[in-house]
Amino acid sequence: MEALATQGHIKHRRGEAGAAEWFARAAAVLRRQLGDPTAELGSRPGWMCCEMLLDELEVAHAAGEDADQLQERVEELSRRLKGARAFHQKSHVARVSRGLDQLGFGRLAAICERGGLQPPWASRPAADLAYEELSAAIRTFRDNQHGWMLPLALLERAKLQGDLVEAAVNLEEARALALAMGLGAVLRRVGGGKLS
Q1: Nearest residue to 170 (alpha-carbon basis) of 184, 158, 156, 188
Q2: The whole model's pTM is what?
């Protein structure tokens, strides 16, 4: 199952077609293993799938996709993230899995904030939810020495912050960590340090 999800992740990172099919195959294996037709990918495989869907949501928003279609994407992502979070809360998993849930919810709420959409799981402002979830993810990654996930969480939080000094600190830390760890995909997202 993890190998199938990894193939999907590689295809997504390369910009190749067919990533979604690999994630669907991984989910089918998981559902057979658990005997649960509603099970969602969790932990690292689930994060890789959600990261692809979050990237697709951002692209769709930038391309001017209809608000109703965007909201459907948000609801689908929310359903997947809730399923993963529920699984992680009722079972013994590494804390990084919970951090990935926080990062997923935080990034989804941040996209909702930028797109004027409402996260379906809460009635609070999307910016508040995003900041709270991203800050929790950053704490989780720091506390458990999962530095490889810190740059993306810091970058997302930097985009949200109205305090440009604090945002610049987050952005610079994201850039330094990504550079030190050779995380090219994050470095491309950080770009020239623009908070857009």
Answers
A1: 158
A2: 0.81
